Amino acid sequence: MAKTQSRGFIAWAGGFLTPKPKTPPSYQIVEVEKGIKVSIELDASAIASLKDHPGILALQNRLRLQKALLKSRLETVRHKDIRDVDFLQSSIFGLGLLESEINAACESVKAKQLPRTPTFNEMEEFEKIRSAIEGVGSTRTE
Question: Is 12 part of any domain?
């Protein structure tokens, strides 16, 4: 009986030591309708123009409000069956996902923006400010 147990243990321990076959990467094919244009480069510039737009901010506020409304309905209202609960939970998840996608897209665009060169009027203002500032410990003769 001891031999059977030891063979079982060796077989069990050998299962951890033998390399597992690698699974090939899985791909998912998504069919896109003909009217939908897929262009990541154009999307970034379009999102960049919307990041501080009052309309996108209003839509983000509506998403937050709708999500809070559904969350309160989930917590306070008595539901007929479990399908109502599932529907509310999936709706809350979907709104949260949409909100996080919008925020991530706007943040990535903000991070990619390059600093622009100041205009002539801005340079004049910078020079006025720079001339008015006195450095501590520096001697300036003018």
Answer: no
> Angle between the 82-112 and 54-76 helix axes, to the nearest 10 degrees?
150
The values of phi and psi at residue 90, to 5°, are -70, -35
Report yes or no on 30 lying in a domain: no
- Taking the model in full, what pTM does it have? 0.50
Q: How far apart are CA 56 and CA 5, in angstroms?
A: 67
Which spans in the chain are helix H?
2-17, 40-50, 54-76, 82-112, 120-132
pLDDT (tens digit per residue) in 14-58: 666 666 677 777 887 777 777 766 666 667 777 767 777 888 888
Kindly state the DSSP code that residue 60 receives in the 8-state scheme: H
Number of separate domains in the chain? 1
Going by C-alpha positions, the residue among 92, 112, 119 that lies closest to residue 40 is 112
Question: Could you give the CA distance from residue 47 to residue 90 in angstroms, rounded to a whole number?
Answer: 26
Residue 52: inside a domain, yes or no?
yes
